[in-house]
Amino acid sequence: MEIAALWTGWKNPEDGQILRSFTMLTVNADDHPFMRNYYKPKDEKRMVVILDDAEYDAWLIAAPDESLSFMRQYPAERMEVKSG
After folding, report:
1. What element of type H or E holds 6?
2. Sign of CA pseudo-dihedral 29, 32, 37, 42
């Protein structure tokens, strides 16, 4: 599963160590048939932005103005719960 994320690195001025950080992007899922079931009734529902396999390379090279086209809910019919 590919999740849309952003990452950066910065150099610690005290010791020169490179530190990396990242964030997984999310969208509202209040009306998502699957993900809305995993939150308390009055809480905002969120889900990570899941990319189709065919979108992975496009996400990595997308210009900022193209990035918004990826910010959408993943179709519920393509998700399933596996108990383990």
Report:
1. strand 5-11
2. positive
Helix (H) or strand (E) holding 67: helix 64-67
pLDDT single digits (tens) 27-72: 999 999 989 988 888 999 999 999 999 999 999 999 999 999 999 9
**Distance between CA 17 and CA 84 in Å, rounded?**
40
Dist CA 32 CA 1 (whole Å) = 19
| pTM score, whole prediction | 0.80
C-alpha closest to that of 24 among 57, 48, 55? 48
DSSP labels, 27-44: EE-TT-TTGGGGS-TTSP
Rounded Cα distance between 82 and 65, Å, is: 36
Plot region of 9 (φ>0 → left; ψ -120 to 50 → alpha; else → beta): beta
